[in-house]
Amino acid sequence: MKKRFLLIAFVVLIIMVSLVGCSPKESVNEGMDASLKEKDAKISELEGKIQELESELDKFSNQPSADNLLSRVIDVMDSIKAKDTERLSSYVHPTRGLRFSPYDYIDAERMKIFTIEEVRGLDKSNQVYTWGSYDGTGDPIELNFDDYYKRFIYDQDFANPQIIGNNVAIGQGNTIDNTKEVYPNSQFIEFHFKEIDPQYEGMDWRSLKLVFEEENGILYLVAIVHGEWTI
Predict the structure, then answer these.
(1) Residue 187 pLDDT more than 60?
(2) What span, in angstroms and rounded, lies between the C-alpha atoms of 15 and 9?
(3) Taking residues 58-72, what's their average pLDDT?
(4) Rounded distance between C-alpha atoms, residue 212 and residue 221, angstroms
(5) Rounded to whole angstroms, how far apart are CA atoms 187 and 167?
(6) Which helix (H) or strand (E) holds 222?
(7) Cα dist from 110 to 48, 173, 185, 204, whole Å
(8) Cα–Cα separations (whole angstroms), residue 222 to 87, 110, 131, 182, 183
């Protein structure tokens, strides 16, 4: 709505400048000279306002839209469900890479960040990585990508969640969610199951959070954060 208003105002100002510019500029007398100077000043003022409006329009056009975020999230989730890491890699941030977190607390100092090339080959690799530490025991999570994927990425059908949060954290447990501290300029979508088995009364909830950061007008994936109840 604001962008539409700026466009309308921009057109109106152009019309005003055109009308003013059509006034005769013949120097008939001193009164006419003064009038022309006043009109010239008015034209300069309007031209300045037009430049301001153009600048505002540029700002809006460079901002990632909600539609753009939604479109990328759908594509990323499709690639995750299919475990298509080559397709997934096309959304990874070119310089910041992609971080996988097994829990809502992101250990920014110790968790490995994967480059685009590394992400592309994950589904074909048997290499064991340390992804973090298991909740409760503190033992290192040492798994290849296939096993990590089954346990800490797609352990539920997140493409068909019970709840979706747009830049709103839904899952809450004893683990601190520090996503916004690690990625202060990020946007994220959280796919959430409030419970899996009713007998656990919600203590078996699951979440998968896709975190994006914008660079040069493009939203890139920087983190895939898994969430669940922790001790």
Answers:
(1) yes
(2) 10
(3) 60
(4) 4
(5) 6
(6) strand 218-228
(7) 52, 22, 21, 27
(8) 15, 16, 15, 11, 9
